[in-house]
User: Which sequence fits this backbone?
């Protein structure tokens, strides 16, 4: 059983939804970023998504674009993202880590080399925005073969005829993007999301986490009430961008996770 | 480089949208259904005589096609070698080849019932062409343009506004063409119902590279017929400039299976193709990667981060190139070279002085290579360069580079 499967099974037994956080590796700098990531489990985070910075994040809004630019300006590379995961794993062997980003830095490192290094560093899953099921032989299949979960995005444009393709070769959970749009934009209401979560859950048999546009403890609780998990990224990153210290960023994260877990 | 020569260079892409390893559909899940829809609609239109009849009518009466194939006599004499012809796509309505493709995509958008058109633009020529055709059909038009380009291509920004388009200056990333394309994709992901993304070159996810090529191939088809009529045979040499590669693909494609025709694409060498990377020559100075929906040669650093191209021409400074060019490069069918900003500027003046034609800075790159190549070729070598745009938009840039004030 992968760390991700174990985590969702444990949460299900407790009757809780998962709280999934997204931060950009290396934002605003390597040391601060590592300190934040190390503090996430104690703040109640169940699954950590760690952004791999890229110059051209086509599906991201300004908050995550700028986070990537800050990380790159601070000398972040894909190799250092893996180094960060390795450091995190020194004291935490249970919290799943998912790397999220775009394909080119991975392709540039070499798929085989990346997959082996990621597994070795303690990565559990991958979300690669610009690799739809049509391109599965690029990274999804090699990642699966190495024992990494390849987590798929499903969106409002993923109709019932496409869902089987989205369900194929995937594992861990499905990330349902609640709106057509970029990260950090407006969110959909829980009422609108609920039937979509059911639809995706039925078609894939996997837990469904919902993200994009969730910014407040209230929204976090609402979404957690209708899905298997809730993902928050831009709202946390905006606090980092504003220069808040690590303790205050983590306090905000705690308010989000408590809301989600209380739902 | 090639160990197996295919029977034809004109059968690509395959059903996955690939030319060899290049091309593909590297887009987010939100966009995937949209590009599948577009592909289905294009496949239908392609074999519909009604679609092409409408295109032909607009090409003839609105754009002014066929564009002349002009024997550049004084230039030929000056260079003292190959017999130089110019394919005069700069005479098209809106002043460049871009409108050939825009018409096709807008007719397709109409067939799909899309009412809102978005486009990216660098030099502004594709933006102007899109704004023009949208005005012609009463469609809403939004053009994304890097803030840096908005500054250096002011006349085109004003033209787009006159034509009723909304120009959105893009400040994200490095604020040039690649960022404009990112922003257009972000808009498309957000407005999936009513919006058609009209891409300006042979890049992007499948089916764009093939579709844009097909629309631009009118350039090569006309050239073929015109040369047969003028000279009774095919040309010996073709030369075209490459930003994303649409004017070049349009000229080249109908000739790819004629091995006797030598084909040369000219990339923007900026300040020189070396490790300072101050150029936009993706094939000469880049390596394969994935950006904007396709795999192709890209300017990138060791970590796979995309680098900014540089060229004096705002239409050429794209860090990628259409995937079909990458394949033709690796197959060895087309030669790719680069020329520098300074060489392009000299060619710009050469065309003004010898032919009374003020070229855009983009085809000035093609001409700069012609100026090097033609003297080495015999008199009977029939050379066609694609004069794909006129230089009105560039006079401020050129004045500045030459140290004059307008
Ligand atoms: C006149 C002209 N030529 C060439 C280009 C480059 O595009 P492509 O390589 O797709 O023809 C542009 C782009 O703006 C242009 O305006």
Assistant:
């Amino acid at each position: 059983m992968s760390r991700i499967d174990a985590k969702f099974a444990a949460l299900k037994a407790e009757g809780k939804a998962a709280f999934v956080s997204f931060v950009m590796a290396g934002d605003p700098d390597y040391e601060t970023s590592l300190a934040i990531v190390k503090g996430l489990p104690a703040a109640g985070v169940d699954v950590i998504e760690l952004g791999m910075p890229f110059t051209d994040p086509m599906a991201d809004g300004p908050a995550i674009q700028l986070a990537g630019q800050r990380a790159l300006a601070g000398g972040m590379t894909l190799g250092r993202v893996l180094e960060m995961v390795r450091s995190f794993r020194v004291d935490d062997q249970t919290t799943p880590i998912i790397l999220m980003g775009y394909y080119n830095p991975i392709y540039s490192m070499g798929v085989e080399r990346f997959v082996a290094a990621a597994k070795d560093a303690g990565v559990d899953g991958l979300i690669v925005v610009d690799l739809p099921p049509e391109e599965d032989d690029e990274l999804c299949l090699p990642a699966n073969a190495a024992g990494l979960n390849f987590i798929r995005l499903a969106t409002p444009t993923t109709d019932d005829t496409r869902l089987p393709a989205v369900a194929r070769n995937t594992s861990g959970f499905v990330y349902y993007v609640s709106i057509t749009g970029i990260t950090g934009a407006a969110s959909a209401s829980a009422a609108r999301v609920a039937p979509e979560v059911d639809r995706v859950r039925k078609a894939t048999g996997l837990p469904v986490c919902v993200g994009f546009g969730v910014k407040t403890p209230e929204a976090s609780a609402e979404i957690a009430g209708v899905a298997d998990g809730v993902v928050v990224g831009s709202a946390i990153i905006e606090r980092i961008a504003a220069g808040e210290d690590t303790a205050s960023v983590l306090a905000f994260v705690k308010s989000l996770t408590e809301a989600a877990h209380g739902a | 480089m090639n160990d197996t020569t295919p029977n034809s260079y004109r059968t690509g892409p395959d059903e996955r949208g690939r030319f060899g390893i290049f091309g593909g559909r590297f887009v987010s899940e939100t966009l995937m259904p949209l590009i599948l829809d577009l592909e289905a609609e294009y496949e239908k239109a392609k074999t519909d005589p009604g679609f092409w009849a409408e295109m032909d009518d607009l090409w003839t009466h609105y754009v002014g096609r066929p564009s002349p194939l002009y024997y550049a006599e004084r230039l030929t004499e000056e260079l003292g070698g190959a017999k130089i012809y110019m394919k005069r796509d700069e005479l098209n309505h809106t002043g460049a080849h871009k409108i050939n493709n825009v018409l096709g995509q807008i007719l397709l958008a109409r067939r799909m019932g899309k009412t809102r058109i978005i486009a990216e633009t660098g030099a502004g020529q594709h933006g102007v062409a899109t704004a023009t055709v949208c005005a012609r059909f009463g469609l809403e038009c939004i053009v994304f343009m890097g803030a840096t380009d908005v500054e250096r291509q002011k006349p085109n920004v004003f033209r787009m506004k006159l034509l009723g388009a909304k120009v959105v200056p893009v400040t994200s990333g490095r604020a040039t063409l690649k960022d404009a394309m990112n922003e257009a994709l972000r808009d498309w992901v957000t407005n999936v119902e009513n919006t058609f993304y009209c891409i300006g070159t042979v890049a992007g996810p499948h089916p764009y590279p093939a579709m844009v090529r097909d629309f631009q191939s009118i350039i090569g088809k006309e050239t073929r017929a015109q040369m047969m009529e003028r000279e009774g045979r095919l040309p010996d040499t073709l030369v075209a400039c490459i930003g994303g590669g649409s004017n070049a693909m349009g000229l080249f494609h109908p000739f790819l299976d004629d091995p006797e025709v030598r084909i040369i694409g000219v990339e923007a060498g900026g300040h020189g193709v070396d490790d300072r990377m101050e150029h936009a020559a993706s094939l000469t100075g880049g390596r394969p990667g994935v950006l904007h929906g396709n795999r192709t040669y890209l300017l990138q650093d060791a970590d796979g981060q995309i680098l900014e191209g540089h060229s004096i021409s705002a239409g050429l400074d794209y860090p990628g190139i259409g995937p079909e060019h990458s394949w033709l490069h690796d197959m060895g069918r087309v030669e790719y070279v680069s020329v520098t900003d300074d060489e392009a500027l000299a060619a710009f003046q050469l065309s003004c002085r010898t032919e009374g034609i003020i070229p855009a800075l983009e085809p000035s790159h093609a001409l700069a290579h012609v100026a090097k190549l033609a003297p080495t070729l015999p008199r009977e070598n029939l050379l066609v360069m694609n004069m794909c745009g006129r230089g009105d938009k560039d006079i401020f840039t050129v004045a500045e580079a030459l140290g004059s004030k307008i």
